[in-house]
Amino acid sequence: MTEDPTHQVKLQASYILPLDIRLNAYFTAISGGTWTARRRTSYNSFGGRITVFVEPRGSNRYEMQKNLDMRLEKTFLLAGKYQLGLFFDVFNVFNTSVITSWGNRIGYDWYLDGPESTQGHDLYGLNMPRRARLGIRCMF
pTM for this structure? Predict the structure, then answer.
């Protein structure tokens, strides 16, 4: 079986606004990781269970993650040689919500009659929601 490669795009842009305020943008689009449906056996004579793949490994892929981060920054010159930067970052500007991990064991954490929002899978991971940060940096 040939492996399905991960695809990604990364773009960065900078623009200087009036009053020498810098606007930076960073966009990424990365194909989601792979997952494979599995099934657990009932208890065997040794008292354990075995989990087996029911399809070739990596047969499925999570949704592509697209993300835009932005920064506004203003830098001030102090004492003729030091710089003080004030910045405001926003991560995941569009607040996209992408599943990064879910249950893939049929009848254990994946049920055909389960929630429609996760196609019956138990949800284990989402990308981070929108968040913001204010910061100060000194350059000397």
Answer: 0.81
